[in-house]
């Protein structure tokens, strides 16, 4: 029996990679530092896994920005617009790579970044490959080979990880009409063959090919592509151990296809889809190995050893020990690095900490499970089993988890809880009368730059070198500056800037009961950006108001409307580590009631416009269409519960970024927010078509500029986008705003861009 890790976090346990990249981008350190930090992290990760006894240690799971972008660069899928990137010969590839990820606005060039979107149902974002009609591929970057060689030099023969050819193509987007991306397979396979040939020559014996699309609904053509791809690879490499990795769901109707593809090992996610084991045991051909994804890569709870042992025993009884591997359910990219770094009991109590495992602990769990299911070694690990059983028991029986009042409040939800008093058409009139906003009203999505300085105040508050009053004073000054500046440039609906928030989810989690935190549990969200998801361990309620103080303060500074700014229940759920002892829907409803209380409090304090952000509603969608409706029913209801406690005159906004709306537009409409602001600029307003086709009745703010890139847009391009929007949406319904919050941007670029944006709105009004 072997153990395998599908991928390890690559940001470094102290976010070293983030710091190196950001410093390189800022021009405060050189490219050599980035490369050296990357090298150190890879070495640490490999050695950690080796020391913990992992049999199959991944390589090429490292990335300086994103693994999908790495593949695009490896395969030479580089959009033409980057040809002109001004490059220095000795680090050309790195600059080109970052230009593709972040756009390029230097040396007289102004090139937009590639699109970014969510990685399946996670909070990780990948850079979408761009495919063109006559797309060719060639081996451009040798990253996977270099990293295999690097590990080999350290005495570790790794298992290179590649996104499989079919999933790579399906992750991409056709940028012009007239072809089907899946037909590019014939052009792409030769590059895989070249890569595998070189890896094999260097001594690679196992190759992990990630094919997560096998847990999604596939067309016949896509199924055929799987057969073509793997038959070809098998033909050329009869002796390589090809590991086909699936994760995030069940194979279902693709189970036979996956079982029959000519690979040596099939990896399946038994955390998300334990029910598929029985059928797999019967259908997996004799010569194949089954890799059991048992250790959860998507959550932070300790593995339940007794449960896992039972599954391993079931598999080995049917298949024999040689044909069963024990693995993480998916890459540990989605787990924080190391629970041992959580030393502050005031943040994470010992009682809750004993229930948890981060990436390093999960790797150790694999080895322990292997020992526990091996007759000769089982006694060596019996203490670990006893400790594990004790921890599971402690969690199941802890008084921290259940709260009768919360359960009663949920039980007492009635039909009126998710209904505004009147339909939008009536509310709209009342709101127009009450608010009297201009056409093409301008606003921003909430956050203003979270500068190093602002973050440093919070760090100082934590360390005690600033007291609460001093910290509050600094935040108040920053807020006032932001309010004054918004007034000055003529924005219509203002925001307070969210300076007091570490993160839009963590901030609320910190104030809600039933949540706890880590100090260092960072997980990569995109590029160098990380989040520290709060941990929901028990019933959720709001002990006291969460945003009133700063919203009231900001409103007191201005006679313009100040938007109340909240994160919605689905997003709080989706971007937290959640309980696995009750359905997600139950936790979401509890959060919805807490947010509803806050919305009502804001209204009572005189706030007339309240935004409830739900950027994660799309990403929470199950991967299989058959499960969508059930999810959408409870998710939309949770949003409506949070939004429906107010008078019709109060305008409820929601905001979503990174979302494809086509197939869920009726549910977006059912959320019935008075105004929805969405991310649309990187796709040149393409995403708006769903709203247009649906004849979406409520108001919409299509993002007019991309906030994920440092490039400053000009007025004319925003006018063009707004004109494009006005072609498909009645102009009375349109708002003008950026794609998302501005927390990741600097003040200089923010100011320039928003001044242009306000001008663009004026131009539209005068048209
Ligand atoms: C809108 N998005 C979000 C997603 N998920 C979330 N949970 N939150 C989101 O906002 N998913 C989709 C998108 C993804 N986008 C982003 C955008 C920006 C970030 C980001 O900027 N992350 C920050 C970390 C934010 C944070 O929690 N900061 C804390 C801690 C700051 C810190 O590191 N402090 C240092 C010391 C600093 C100093 O001394 O100067 C320390 O403690 O060591 C805070 O502000 O208090 C990032 O830096 O990556 C993420 C996702
Ligand atoms: N209000 C948040 C939404 C981000 S999705 C912000 O502005 O950052
Ligand atoms: Zn957003």
UniProtKB/TrEMBL annotation:
<feature type="binding site">
    <location>
        <position position="679"/>
    </location>
    <ligand>
        <name>Zn(2+)</name>
    </ligand>
</feature>
<dbReference type="GO" id="GO:0071265">
    <property type="term" value="P:L-methionine biosynthetic process"/>
</dbReference>
<feature type="binding site">
    <location>
        <position position="18"/>
    </location>
    <ligand>
        <name>5-methyltetrahydropteroyltri-L-glutamate</name>
    </ligand>
</feature>
<comment type="pathway">
    <text>Amino-acid biosynthesis; L-methionine biosynthesis via de novo pathway; L-methionine from L-homocysteine (MetE route): step 1/1.</text>
</comment>
<dbReference type="Pfam" id="PF08267">
    <property type="entry name" value="Meth_synt_1"/>
</dbReference>
<feature type="binding site">
    <location>
        <position position="619"/>
    </location>
    <ligand>
        <name>5-methyltetrahydropteroyltri-L-glutamate</name>
    </ligand>
</feature>
<dbReference type="Pfam" id="PF01717">
    <property type="entry name" value="Meth_synt_2"/>
</dbReference>
<feature type="binding site">
    <location>
        <position position="118"/>
    </location>
    <ligand>
        <name>5-methyltetrahydropteroyltri-L-glutamate</name>
    </ligand>
</feature>
<feature type="binding site">
    <location>
        <begin position="15"/>
        <end position="18"/>
    </location>
    <ligand>
        <name>5-methyltetrahydropteroyltri-L-glutamate</name>
    </ligand>
</feature>
<keyword id="KW-0028">Amino-acid biosynthesis</keyword>
<feature type="active site" description="Proton donor">
    <location>
        <position position="708"/>
    </location>
</feature>
<feature type="binding site">
    <location>
        <position position="498"/>
    </location>
    <ligand>
        <name>L-homocysteine</name>
    </ligand>
</feature>
<comment type="function">
    <text>Catalyzes the transfer of a methyl group from 5-methyltetrahydrofolate to homocysteine resulting in methionine formation.</text>
</comment>
<feature type="binding site">
    <location>
        <position position="655"/>
    </location>
    <ligand>
        <name>Zn(2+) 1</name>
    </ligand>
</feature>
<protein>
    <recommendedName>
        <fullName>5-methyltetrahydropteroyltriglutamate--homocysteine methyltransferase</fullName>
        <ecNumber>2.1.1.14</ecNumber>
    </recommendedName>
</protein>
<feature type="binding site">
    <location>
        <position position="657"/>
    </location>
    <ligand>
        <name>Zn(2+) 1</name>
    </ligand>
</feature>
<feature type="binding site">
    <location>
        <position position="123"/>
    </location>
    <ligand>
        <name>5-methyltetrahydropteroyltri-L-glutamate</name>
    </ligand>
</feature>
<keyword id="KW-0489">Methyltransferase</keyword>
<dbReference type="GO" id="GO:0008270">
    <property type="term" value="F:zinc ion binding"/>
</dbReference>
<feature type="binding site">
    <location>
        <position position="613"/>
    </location>
    <ligand>
        <name>L-methionine</name>
    </ligand>
</feature>
<feature type="domain" description="Cobalamin-independent methionine synthase MetE C-terminal/archaeal">
    <location>
        <begin position="440"/>
        <end position="762"/>
    </location>
</feature>
<comment type="similarity">
    <text>Belongs to the vitamin-B12 independent methionine synthase family.</text>
</comment>
<feature type="binding site">
    <location>
        <begin position="445"/>
        <end position="447"/>
    </location>
    <ligand>
        <name>L-methionine</name>
    </ligand>
</feature>
<dbReference type="GO" id="GO:0032259">
    <property type="term" value="P:methylation"/>
</dbReference>
<keyword id="KW-0677">Repeat</keyword>
<dbReference type="InterPro" id="IPR002629">
    <property type="entry name" value="Met_Synth_C/arc"/>
</dbReference>
<keyword id="KW-0862">Zinc</keyword>
<keyword id="KW-0808">Transferase</keyword>
<feature type="domain" description="Cobalamin-independent methionine synthase MetE N-terminal">
    <location>
        <begin position="3"/>
        <end position="317"/>
    </location>
</feature>
<keyword id="KW-0479">Metal-binding</keyword>
<feature type="binding site">
    <location>
        <begin position="529"/>
        <end position="530"/>
    </location>
    <ligand>
        <name>5-methyltetrahydropteroyltri-L-glutamate</name>
    </ligand>
</feature>
<feature type="binding site">
    <location>
        <position position="657"/>
    </location>
    <ligand>
        <name>Zn(2+)</name>
    </ligand>
</feature>
<feature type="binding site">
    <location>
        <position position="575"/>
    </location>
    <ligand>
        <name>5-methyltetrahydropteroyltri-L-glutamate</name>
    </ligand>
</feature>
<feature type="binding site">
    <location>
        <position position="613"/>
    </location>
    <ligand>
        <name>L-homocysteine</name>
    </ligand>
</feature>
<feature type="binding site">
    <location>
        <position position="498"/>
    </location>
    <ligand>
        <name>L-methionine</name>
    </ligand>
</feature>
<feature type="binding site">
    <location>
        <position position="740"/>
    </location>
    <ligand>
        <name>Zn(2+) 1</name>
    </ligand>
</feature>
<feature type="binding site">
    <location>
        <position position="740"/>
    </location>
    <ligand>
        <name>Zn(2+)</name>
    </ligand>
</feature>
<dbReference type="InterPro" id="IPR006276">
    <property type="entry name" value="Cobalamin-indep_Met_synthase"/>
</dbReference>
<keyword id="KW-0486">Methionine biosynthesis</keyword>
<dbReference type="InterPro" id="IPR038071">
    <property type="entry name" value="UROD/MetE-like_sf"/>
</dbReference>
<feature type="binding site">
    <location>
        <position position="655"/>
    </location>
    <ligand>
        <name>Zn(2+)</name>
    </ligand>
</feature>
<dbReference type="GO" id="GO:0003871">
    <property type="term" value="F:5-methyltetrahydropteroyltriglutamate-homocysteine S-methyltransferase activity"/>
</dbReference>
């Amino acid at each position: 029996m072997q153990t395998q890790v599908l991928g390890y976090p690559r940001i470094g346990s102290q976010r070293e990679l983030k710091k190196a990249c950001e410093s390189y981008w800022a021009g405060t350190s050189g490219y050599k530092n980035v490369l050296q930090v990357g090298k150190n992290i890879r070495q640490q990760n490999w050695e950690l896994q080796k020391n913990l006894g992992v049999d199959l240690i991944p390589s090429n799971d490292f990335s300086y920005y994103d693994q999908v972008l790495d593949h695009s660069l490896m395969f030479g899928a580089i959009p033409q617009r980057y040809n002109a990137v001004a490059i220095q010969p000795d680090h050309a590839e790195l600059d080109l790579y970052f230009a593709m990820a972040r756009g390029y606005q230097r040396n007289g060039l102004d090139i937009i970044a590639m699109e970014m979107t969510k990685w399946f149902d996670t909070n990780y974002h990948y850079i979408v490959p761009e495919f063109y009609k006559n797309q060719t591929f060639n081996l451009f970057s040798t990253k996977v080979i270099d990293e295999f060689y690097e590990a080999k030099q350290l005495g570790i023969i790794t298992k290179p990880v590649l996104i499989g050819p079919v999933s790579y193509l399906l992750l991409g987007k056709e940028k012009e009409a007239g072809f089907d991306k899946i037909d590019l397979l014939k052009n792409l396979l030769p590059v895989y063959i070249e890569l595998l040939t070189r890896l094999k020559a260097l001594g690679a014996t196992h190759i992990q090919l990630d094919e997560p699309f096998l847990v999604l609904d596939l067309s016949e053509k896509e199924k055929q592509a799987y057969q073509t791809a793997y038959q070809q690879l098998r033909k050329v490499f009869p002796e390589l151990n090809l590991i086909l990795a699936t994760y995030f769901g069940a194979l279902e109707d693709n189970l036979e296809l996956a079982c029959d593809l000519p690979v040596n090992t099939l990896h399946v996610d038994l955390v998300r889809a334990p029910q598929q084991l029985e059928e797999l045991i019967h259908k997996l051909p004799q010569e194949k190995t089954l890799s059991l994804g048992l250790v959860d890569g998507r959550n932070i709870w300790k593995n339940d050893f007794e449960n896992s042992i039972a599954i391993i025993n079931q598999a080995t009884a049917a298949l024999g020990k040689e044909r069963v591997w024990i693995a993480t359910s998916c890459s540990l990219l989605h787990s924080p690095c190391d629970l041992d770094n959580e030393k502050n009991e005031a943040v994470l109590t010992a009682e809750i900490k004993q229930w948890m495992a981060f990436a390093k602990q999960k790797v150790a769990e694999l080895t322990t499970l292997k020992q526990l299911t091996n007759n000769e070694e089982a006694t060596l690990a019996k203490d670990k089993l006893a400790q594990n059983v004790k921890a599971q028991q402690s969690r199941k029986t802890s008084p921290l988890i259940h709260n009768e009042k919360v359960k009663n409040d949920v039980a007492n939800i009635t039909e009126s809880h998710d209904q505004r008093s009147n339909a939008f058409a009536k509310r709209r009139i009342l709101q127009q009368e009450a608010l009297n906003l201009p056409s093409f009203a301008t606003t921003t999505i909430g956050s203003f730059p979270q500068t190093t300085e602002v973050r440093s105040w919070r760090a100082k508050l934590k360390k005690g070198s600033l007291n609460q009053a001093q910290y509050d004073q600094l935040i108040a000054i920053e807020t006032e500056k932001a309010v004054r500046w918004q007034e000055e440039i003529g924005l219509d609906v203002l925001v307070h800037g969210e300076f007091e928030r570490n993160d839009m989810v963590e901030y609320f989690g910190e104030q809600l009961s039933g949540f706890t935190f880590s100090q260092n549990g960072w997980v990569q969200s995109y590029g160098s950006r990380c989040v520290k998801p709060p941990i929901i361990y028990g019933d959720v309620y709001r002990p006291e108001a969460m945003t009133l103080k700063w919203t009231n303060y900001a409103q007191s500074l201005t006679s313009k409307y100040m938007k109340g700014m909240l994160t919605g229940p689905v997003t709080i759920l989706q971007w937290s580590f959640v309980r696995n002892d009750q359905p997600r829907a139950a936790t979401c409803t509890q959060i919805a009631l807490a947010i509803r209380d806050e919305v009502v409090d804001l209204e009572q304090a005189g706030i007339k416009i309240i935004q409830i952000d739900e950027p994660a509603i799309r990403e929470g969608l199950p991967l299989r269409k058959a499960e969508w409706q059930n999810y959408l029913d409870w998710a939309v209801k949770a949003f409506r519960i949070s939004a429906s406690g107010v008078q019709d005159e109060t305008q409820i906004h929601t905001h979503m970024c990174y979302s494809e709306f086509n197939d869920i537009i009726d549910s977006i409409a059912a959320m019935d927010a008075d105004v929805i602001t969405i991310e649309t600029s990187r796709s040149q307003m393409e995403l708006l078509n769903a709203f247009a086709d649906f004849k979406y009745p409520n108001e919409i703010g299509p993002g007019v500029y991309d906030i994920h890139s440092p490039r400053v847009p000009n007025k004319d391009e925003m006018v063009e986008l707004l004109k494009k929007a006005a072609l498909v949406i009645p102009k009375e319904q349109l708002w003008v705003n950026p794609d998302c919050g501005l927390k990741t941007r600097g003040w200089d670029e923010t100011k320039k861009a928003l001044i242009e944006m306000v001008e663009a709105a004026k131009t539209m009004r005068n048209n």
